[in-house]
Amino acid sequence: MNYDKLLNRTLAELKPSGIRKFFDIAAEMEDVISLSVGEPDFATPWHIRQTAIHTLEKGRTWYSPNAGLLRLREAIAAYVARHDGVTYDPKTEILVTVGGSEAIDLCLRALLSPGDEVLIPEPSFVCYDPLTRLTGATPVPLTTRAEDAFRLKAETVRAAITPHTKLLVLPFPNNPTGAIMPREELEELADVLRGTDIMVLSDEIYSELTYGREHVSIASLPGMQERTLLVSGFSKAFAMTGWRLGYACGPAPVMKLLTKLHQYAIMCAPTTAQHAAIEALENGDEDVLHMREEYDMRRRLIVDALNRMGLTCFEPEGAFYVFPSIRSTGMTSEEFCHRLLTEKHVAVIPGNAFGDCGEGFIRISYCYSVKHITEALERIHAFLEENGLCK
Amino acid sequence: MDKLLKILAKDARLTNAQLAAMLNTTEADVAERIATLEKAGVIRGYQALVDWDKTDRELVTAEINLKIAPSKETGFDGIAEIIMSFDEVESVSLMSGGYDLSVIITGRSFKDVAMFVAKRLSPLDGVLSTATHFVLKRYKERGVLFTNEEKDERGQV
C-alpha cells in the first residue's frame, strides 16, 4: 500500500503539536519535575464523582439526546445567565459536546468554507490553526504582545479584516499567556465587529479562573450575542478534564448545524459525565472558589520568584499559566527548554509552540503543589546561576 | 490571618518572601504577623514530620485510652497535667465518648511502652482503666501520605 497517496494531504501536512514533543522527551527521563501540564492537579470534587457513581449504580448508561440531557442544558443556561448575564434557550441554543475541543471543531466546521479567513490571536492554544486549515479556510494570525499584557487590541483586528474574514477566535483567559480581556478592551473590540458579518468564537474555558477581576464574556456586550459562539466546558473550572465534557452556546441557526454535525460524528457526549456535570453546575461553586484561591497563591509565588531571577514576567490575570520572557538569557525558547530539561530535569513548554510570536517566552503551569513549585523554581534558579544568567 | 496559618500549617519552611508573594503583602508584614501569632501562643512550634520507619531508629508508638475518675477540685485537668509532664508522652487529649484521656507515647520497644503504662500511668490516682493500642503502620499523618506518593498521571496530552 502506498499510504502517502492515500492519506488526506491537508491533515498529513499539519505540523504536530509542539507541546507533545516536550512531554515525550520528559517522559523518557527519570526524576523530572514538570511544570508543563495544562490540567488541574485537583481530583474532581468528591460529590461530583459520587453523583456519577450513583447514576452508574442505577444503570443510567444510555445515550442522551444528541444535544445533551435537557436538564444539563437547562443547568448550563442557568449557569451562563448567572455568570455572564447572557440568556440562551436550552432547547435550541445550547449543545453539550465532548470537551470544549469538540465544540471548537464544530464551530469552525459549521461556519467555514475554503477561501474564508479566520483571525486567530497568538500566542494561543494549539488547535485553532490546524482545525481551521482542515476546513480549507485560511488562518490569519494576530500578534498579541507582552507590552499590551497579551491582550488583543481592537486596531490589530481592524487592520486584519478583509472581505473574506468570517470568524474571529477569542481565546481569553488565554492559554498560554494567562492574559484576560477586560471589559473596556472588549468594548473596543465589539465596536469593530458590530456592523460586520464576522462571528466570534469565544473560547471561555478558563473563565472561572481569573484573579482580581471577574471574567467578562463578549456575548454580554450590546449587539454581540447574535454574533458570538460561546464555548466552554467543565475541565478547567471543575477539575474534570478526563470526563471530556464541554458545551457551545449561540444563535439557533448556527447551533442547528453544530448539532447536526455532532449527531453524525459523536451521537452524544458521555452520559455519565453529563450527570456529573449537572451536579458540578448546581453544587460546585465552593469547589471552584477553593481551587481559584489555591491557584492564585501559586500564581503570585511563581511570578514573584521569576521576576527576582530576572525572567521578567507580566502579571497573568487568568487561567493557570505564567508566560515569562527568557530573552535576557540570549537563548531561543526551544534551546532554553531543552537545556533546562537536560541540565536540571525541569520540564516547561517553549512559547513558540503557541505561535511564532511566542518565541522568547516559556509557558509555566502552576497546576502543582506549592512544594513541587518551589522545588522547580529552585532548579530554574540554579540553572540560571550556573550559566551565569542570573540577575 | 487564617490564610497565613493555613499555609504554614501545611509547610512551615516557606520563606517570608515566598509567603509575602503568596499573600500579596510585604515580607515585613509577614514577619510581624508570625511574631504576633507566636507571641499569642497561636503558633506553638515548628517540627519536621518524620517517618521513623524509614530510619534505623526503632520506635514503637501507642495510643492509650484512659478512663478517669475526675477529681473534685481539678476535674480532668489535674491528672492530665501529671501525665503530660512525662517526657515519653507525645500528646494528651481529653476525649468525648467511651473513655476520657487519649495519650500517645513513643518508646524503644513494646515492652518499654507496656512498662510505662503499668508503672507510671496505671498507678496514678484517678486512673480507672487503661487500654493500650500499638500503631502498626502509618498511612497518613497531618495531611501527609506516609505511603509512597502516587505517580502524577498527567501530561498525556
Describe, in plain words, how this protein is organized in 3D.
The complex is a heterodimer of chains A (391) and B (157). Helices cover 42% and strands 13% of the residues of chain A. With 391 residues, chain A is an alpha/beta fold. Chain A folds into two domains: 3-44 and 286-385, Aspartate Aminotransferase, domain 1 (Alpha-Beta Complex), CATH 3.90.1150; 46-283, Type I PLP-dependent aspartate aminotransferase-like (Major domain) (Aspartate Aminotransferase, domain 2). Chain A has a seven-stranded mixed sheet with strand order 2-8-7-6-5-3-4, sandwiched between helices. A three-stranded antiparallel sheet of chain A has the order 9-12-11. Chain A has a two-stranded parallel sheet with strand order 1-10. Chain B is 32% helix and 22% strand. Chain B has helices at 2-10, 16-23, 27-39, 77-84, 110-121; strands at residues 60-68, 89-94, 101-107, 127-134, 140-141, 144-145. Chain B has a four-stranded antiparallel sheet. A two-stranded antiparallel sheet of chain B has the order 5-6. Chain B starts with a helix and ends in a 12-residue tail after the last strand. Classes of the chains: A alpha/beta (391), B alpha+beta (157). At the A-B interface, helix 3, helix 12 and helix 14 of A face helix 2 of B.
